[in-house]
Specification:
The chain is mainly β. About 15% of the residues lie in helices and about 40% in strands. The chain has helices at about 1-10, 10-20, 80-85, and strands at about 25-30, 35-40, 45-50, 55-60, 95-105, 110-115, 120-125, 130-140. An 8-stranded antiparallel beta sheet has the order 4-3-2-1-5-6-7-8. The model has no long low-confidence stretch (mean pLDDT about 90).
Length: about 150
Amino acid sequence: MIEEYKRLLNSREFKGWKSKNKDSFLCSFVLIDNPQFDFYNKNDTMTSFLMRDEIEIKDNEEFLKSHDKLKELKLDEVKVGLREALDFVKDIKNYSRKIIILQDTKHPFWNITLVSSSRLFNIKIDAVTKKVLSRQEEPISKFMKKVV
């Protein structure tokens, strides 16, 4: 993750964008298929940098706001790296999709969601202390709306 972040910071795409968006700050790291760094913009939008062979920018996207205010994610404060965070879910089998998010609302934390055809598992881990903040597993059907 740190190497990809350095790659982003040194890229011409990021430098050009940042020169016009000085007040924007890193608010999350997301890993689904490719690493992605999200920056919160002062106009309540988000700019995402997808780290592929070529860096792809998705600028000024609206996003779901939660009641927890996004804070700047300071990667130098994170003591639990990606590999170590994934150790918390290494024994969980039969999941076809991983969604991994590192963000900071009150303090930096990892939010890892594993999805299977029938179950959804989620764990939140303090990215400084390694403390498990929450852990839950639910059937996917719990999240489906009933059509009347």
